[in-house]
Write a structure and sequence with these properties.
The chain has about 425 residues and is an alpha/beta fold. The protein is built from ten helices and 29 strands. The structure holds zinc ion (ZN).
Length: about 425
């Protein structure tokens, strides 16, 4: 299924050449639920969640506006109906193809009442039975200009081999993803809550994003303080409904978000209409849909890589933000580390470098260095062509990637710092992607 996706993706890429350098992210108004459609610079599509049963029409309408008829990759973050309910309607629509699908697997965990519910049976029939189980550390090959990395699934986070206490809460077991396009960084975590957020924060797995798609619709038990402090987003999008059922977003969660420094801009797809309880709202001007019944609350983020900015647009409004001025990926970066290989660590510890720049780089004289000043020489990698990755093993070199955490710096032949990555733990045989 994935191979077929790659081939047809080439044709779509040609058709969508007019959108080169632009990533579009549609936060679809599905009331209480979530559905986020990515259209990559090459015209390829990633749909994360699909709203409730009955929301297929809303998804189709947004796809039509976006000029796409195909979902190259669909991710169901978890098995709650507000995240997968609409996908069967999308798949049964004429002219719409869903080429590849992912969920968190482990369906035996579900109570029989869920497995036999009509909406879940529809999901399984149309998509779920063909879905690949996505686990932390795996990536989705959406577009050569982007990375899509699974940070958590099933309550286990990247770097955790076999957690002693796997998740047992359906929300907290959601698939979460870190998505990058050049310097732009975006996090979406389905309905993960404090336990998984804490494990992500403890390991510094997701730092310093541009946009945060708020966990669990802005619920009180998501967007915990340590996690928010790591993410430090400049913009937050909350996919929430207008009615009293769940009281999303919670005022206490909005207060945590507005307490960040710098204070992020916060956007809601819908206005939470009841008053007098613990639900809350940002100011009306930051809410896409102010009415109860409308489906016009979709928030579109357009990321312009060349301009170094992104625009958040809804209801005739548009707010532009600069992409954070982190080290631009114009040259070689640290792509992943393997501190705890199977076998002899002095031989098999490994680091993968990626040339994110436009031209080949010769690594003669380049080194990796740890806090203690010990190094690996990288000259044996030779010349790294643009867009290519290469892995170097330790093979007895002095620097050791500590299993309990380390900070590794990449230096060029002139001693200039090109990249830096810190991690706090490692698990045997599991590489740590940096997201760089
Ligand atoms: Zn939900």
């Amino acid at each position: 299924m994935r191979r077929a996706t790659l081939l047809s993706g080439l044709f779509l890429g040609l058709a969508a050449a007019g959108h080169a350098q632009t990533l579009r992210i549609h936060h679809i108004d599905v009331d209480q639920g979530a559905a986020t459609l990515f259209v990559s610079p090459g015209g390829r599509t990633l749909l994360i969640d699909s709203g409730k049963n009955g929301h297929g029409g809303r998804l189709r309408a947004v796809m039509q506006q976006a000029g796409v008829t195909r979902i190259d990759h669909f991710v169901a973050t978890h098995y709650h109906e507000d995240h997968y309910g609409g996908i069967d309607e999308l798949r049964s629509a004429p002219q719409i193809t869903i080429a590849a699908a992912y969920d968190r697997g482990d369906k035996a965990f579900l109570p029989a009442s869920r497995r036999t519910s009509p909406t879940f049976v529809d999901y399984e029939t149309h998509v779920g039975s063909m879905a690949d189980a996505l686990t932390r550390g795996e990536t989705i090959a959406l577009d050569p200009a982007m990375t899509v990395t699974c940070i958590s699934a099933g309550g286990a986070v990247l770097g955790e081999a076999n957690p002693a206490a796997p998740g047992n809460d359906e929300n907290d077991m959601s698939i979460s993803l870190l998505i990058t396009f050049g310097r732009f960084r975006y996090f979406v975590g389905g309905d993960i809550e404090t336990p998984t957020e804490a494990k992500i924060a403890d390991r510094d797995l997701v730092m310093d994003v541009d946009v945060y798609n708020a966990d669990h619709h802005g619920a009180e038990n998501g967007s915990s303080p340590a996690f928010l402090t790591d993410l430090r987003p400049n913009a937050i999008v909350i996919s929430n409904g207008s009615r009293a059922d769940y009281r999303h977003p919670r005022q206490v969660t909005l207060d945590r978000m507005t307490g960040l420094s710098p204070r992020p801009a916060i956007f809601q797809t819908n206005k939470y209409l009841p008053t007098g309880d613990d639900g809350g709202n940002v100011a009306d001007q930051f809410i896409a849909d102010l009415e109860a019944v409308d489906a016009d609350g979709t928030i579109l983020i357009t990321v312009n890589g060349a301009a170094g900015s992104y625009a958040v647009a809804y209801r005739g409004q548009s707010h532009t933000f600069p992409i954070k001025p982190r080290a631009p990926a114009t040259s070689v970066v640290i792509a992943s580390l393997l501190p705890d290989p199977v076998g002899d660590e002095s031989i098999f510890e490994a680091v993968t470098l990626r040339n994110a720049g436009p031209s080949a780089v010769t690594l003669t004289g380049w080194v990796l260095r740890d806090a203690g000043g010990r190094v690996w020489a990288l000259g044996s990698l030779g010349t790294l062509p643009a867009g290519q990755s290469a892995t170097i093993r330790r093979n007895g070199m002095p620097l050791s990637l500590n299993n309990g955490g380390d900070e590794i710096v990449l230096l060029d032949a002139g001693g200039g710092e090109r990249d830096r990555f810190r991690y706090t733990s490692a698990q045997e045989g599991v590489p740590i992607p940096t997201g760089h």
